[in-house]
Amino acid sequence: MTSDVSALQLVLTADPALMAIVRLSLIVSLSAVILATLFAVPFGALIALTRFRGREIVVVVLNALMGLPPVVVGLAVYLLLSRSGPLGTFGILFTPQAMVIAQTILIAPIIAALARQTIEDLSAEYRDELAGMNVGPLKRVATLIWDGRFSLLTALLAGFGRAAAEVGAVMIVGGNIDGFTRTMTTAIALETSKGDLPLAIGLGMVLIAIVIIINALAWTMRRAGERYAG
Amino acid sequence: MMRMRAFHSDLPVVFENVSVVARSVTILENLNLSLDAGSPSVLVGPNGSGKTTFLRIAMGMIAPARGRVTYGGRAGVTPVRRAIVFQHPVMLRRTVLANIRYALASAGVPRAEWKTRAESLLDLVGVASLADRPARRLSGGEQQRVALARALARDPEILFLDEPTASLDPAATKAIEDIIGAVSARGIKVVMSTHDLGEARRIGGEIVLLHRGRVMEKADTKSFFDAPRTAEARRFIQGEILL
Amino acid sequence: MITRRILFAAGAAFLVGHAVPAIAQDKSIVVASTTSTQDSGLFGHILPLFKAKTGIDVKVIALGTGQALDTARRGDADVVFVHAKAAEEKFLAEGFGVKRFPVMYNDFVLIGPKADPAGVKGTKDIVAALNTIKSKGAPFISRGDKSGTHIAEVNLWKVAGVDIAADKGSWYKEIGQGMGAALNTAAASNAYVLADRGTWLAFKNKDDLAIVVEGDKRLFNQYGVMLVNPEKHTSVKKELGQQFIDWLVSAEGQKAIADYKINGEQLFYANAHDVGA
Hints:
The structure holds 3 protein chains of 3 kinds. By secondary structure, chain A is mostly helical. Chain A has one domain (7-229): MetI-like (MetI-like fold, Orthogonal Bundle). In chain A, 77% of the residues lie in helices and 0% in strands. Chain A has 10 helices and no strands. Chain A has helices spanning 7-12, 16-49, 55-65, 70-81, 96-132, 137-147, 149-165, 168-174, 184-193, 197-229. In chain A, helix 5 packs antiparallel against helix 7 (149-165) and helix 9 packs antiparallel against helix 10 (197-229). Chain B is of the alpha/beta class. Chain B has 8 helices and 10 strands. In chain B, the strands form 2 sheets. Chain B has a 6-stranded mixed β-sheet, with helices on both faces. A 4-stranded antiparallel β-sheet of chain B has the order 2-1-4-5, with helices on one face. Chain B is globular and about 50 Å long. Chains in contact: A-B, A-C. Chains A and C meet through helix 2, helix 5 and helix 9 of A and helix 1, helix 2, strand 2 and helix 9 of C.
């Protein structure tokens, strides 16, 4: 991105470098949300619906992991993916894939913890009726997830928000490589360190606008759905 | 509405020395009772007498701590031919029609039959015009009707109802009682608990008085109200508090 | 239910689709370099020229010199391009590098508030200036991150007779970050900071800061490039990496470096042929 140009100008002219950065940020964070959801929602449902010794501790730990510091996750993933590390042969350090992995790990606890809460509450509410209809365990989980989908959507949004906003993990495992692993947040960090504060602030506002748009879309979906399902 | 199926009746439902304890409180104590095919059995008794627990055990939702329940002479029968309606029904977060379809699916009814069966169920309980409304937005009485339709979707032999009209206004109560009457007329065994002695009189073929987890008296409705045998029944009918 | 299946499939395709281009990225190398070099904007200028000529994508990871060398030690980079000769030679001695080539030089400058509270402006003696700053307790920002600039700064303190690690007071603040961050901090706290000229010229938040000391021969800052030893890490792309090094020291590369200017001022001086640089 060239200097002496405001962020607004870059947006209005759809500057290709800016567009590439926005696209990468969205792809990385959305991919992380999808991947994390695939693991986290079933896991959260499992914790919500089963009774076992130490369950309380698992719930507490899961809730605590919501606050995993991104830079710590980044460091851990870096050490895993480094050529000198256990998964080095795959050579995916400093690639968008590594960034997706790091963010997935970062937000999975958030989605799992919120999913657990949602499903547990819904299960308590539906327990008698589903028992009365003799619904088996698999179908019961599917019903809870489906009927709870709007609250689960909120959990996904929380995960997305965390992913889109963080810089520590993607900086370390991505390397902020120009045109390859530079996201909105790492670009903002870079422009700040180059002293181009107006551009950095401008990019920050673009990032916030994007996050607001995504939240608004989800809100609209939710309202439409609730009008249908009550 | 009846469909072809390998048929072994769940009736009579026989409680043999059933005891249930929860948190060191005895809810049912050595309870022996037989529910036979035919006219509705209505359970009455003060709060805490064990009516709800009784119904849940009869439905098969809880297992007794001691004793057993047999269905048509057999023990351990899955509740395929039984259905239950609770005092506060919970509607699934879907339309009324979707709720019925869910019940049909859970009961193993083939998809091809869903449309016709859902329509006749909605007509039976009188909510056909509400089919596409979100079920949770309905009034209490309407939701109770949907709950009834869901229960009937299972094509049950026995229908349990736990104080179904306790939270409803008179108009809604009448609507529910009418449906129960129609259901019973079709040959479905109704087992219902109620707080309202008037309702017991209206619905009952027989009355069962529960007190402190035991059966105090079981008699046909006329005998129970006109000539109660036990002191508890007499005092209960007169509106006294049984301790 | 069908829409859900479609969404699932779309999501999976999405992820796979984005894995493929990365794997297909064969003609690329990872170069571990420094934040000062990146912040100066040099790479933005020379790398497109290199790509146009060879089709090789150079992916620059910008860290402090110490971190850059450590990244290479772990095998996560193919080439290192830093500016701390002693650290580079240690890297070679440990067997992690193949050969060191000098590429370019610039100089360090002492930056400080225009008001110059320590009164060091105008002197050409960096050591004297540092001593004055210390004795007056004027605020000083250090990068503190084992970078080339940080190492140079510590060495200058040593020449001034100060063991800065042992002898620092509250006027000396180590921030553990890159050159840009150090300049931002200095601007915000009216402090002195040692910077390389390239980053300084490219820096946009100069605020109330200016160059207060320059021209001392001891402020000379040499950049060197090394191929990471493929015998230590077989994943190193040695042919492509060597092509980059060859280009940097070639007439073409050297000219590209010398041509890089900001506001007409040259940032780096190409000196690949200076023996002993």
